[in-house]
Design a protein that fits this description.
It is a single chain. This protein is of the alpha/beta class. It is 39% helix and 16% strand. The protein has a seven-stranded mixed sheet, with helices on both faces. α3 (51-57) links the parallel β2 (39-45) and β3.
């Protein structure tokens, strides 16, 4: 019996928003395969490079959004949540499609849950791997994390991390409105209104030559502005 078998009696549905990630999506999905998740849904947000077809080849379900629909990552995740909501499972798993998260780090989430089964909201934290994070990205992330954490009354280490495990009954109660990258902070800010069991799970910080769709200071400002309204 593998270590994954002993640590994961949970039913987990992975939700991955992807836009033009043909170079990375296969590796992300292959990295999740050993965990035998309940479902893996890739929301193909208008990709023009065959991202959706490659995801299907790796065995994932694919929900295609047409190019030009707008809304970015927020709309993609909300569409995926709507498709998964009627199913019966315990946790949503979120991770990015751009290869900047190592799916093997899911092991740390599962190990934590094995010891703390009451946990509701687990956020992957790159805090201990900060030397690998470009300085400008680290500064904007740290500022946004500190500011919004003070407002929400929750201590966050890495508020912009896209690697999360969230209990389904928590997330299904949220009325989400955000577009773009603000949705991740909207989820955290709205969930902070409840007495949840939060945890930070150390994950690797991975930055590769392909870059990210995240636009540093501009997107951090938009996230903060939206989160203060949500």
């Amino acid at each position: 019996m593998s270590e994954q078998d002993t640590l994961q009696p949970l039913r987990i549905a992975a939700l991955i928003a992807a836009h033009d990630e043909a170079d990375q999506i296969g590796g992300v999905l292959r990295g999740l395969a050993p965990y035998r998740l309940h479902r893996i849904l890739v929301v193909d947000d208008g990709s023009m490079d065959g991202t959706g077809a490659l995801a299907r080849q790796e065995g994932a379900e694919v929900l295609r959004l047409d190019p030009g629909q707008g809304g970015g990552k927020g709309q993609a995740l909300r569409a995926g949540l709507a498709q998964l909501r009627a199913d019966d499972f315990e946790f949503y798993l979120f991770l990015d499609a751009d290869g900047q998260h190592d799916p093997a780090d899911l092991q740390g989430f599962l190990a934590y849950l094995a010891l703390h089964p009451q946990a509701d909201f687990l956020i992957g934290s790159r805090y201990l791997d900060r030397d690998r994070i470009p300085p400008r990205r680290w500064r904007t992330n740290a500022l946004g994390t500190w500011t919004l954490g003070r407002i929400a009354g929750v201590r966050w280490e890495d508020s912009q991390s896209g690697f999360r495990l969230i209990r389904k009954k928590v997330l299904d109660r949220l009325d989400l409105k955000a577009t773009g990258f603000a949705i991740e902070m909207e989820i955290a800010m709205k969930a902070a209104d409840w007495r949840l069991a939060w945890a930070h799970i150390p994950i690797r910080a991975i930055y590769h030559g392909g870059g990210s769709h995240f636009r540093g200071v501009l997107d951090t400002w938009r996230i903060a502005k939206f989160s203060l309204r949500c």
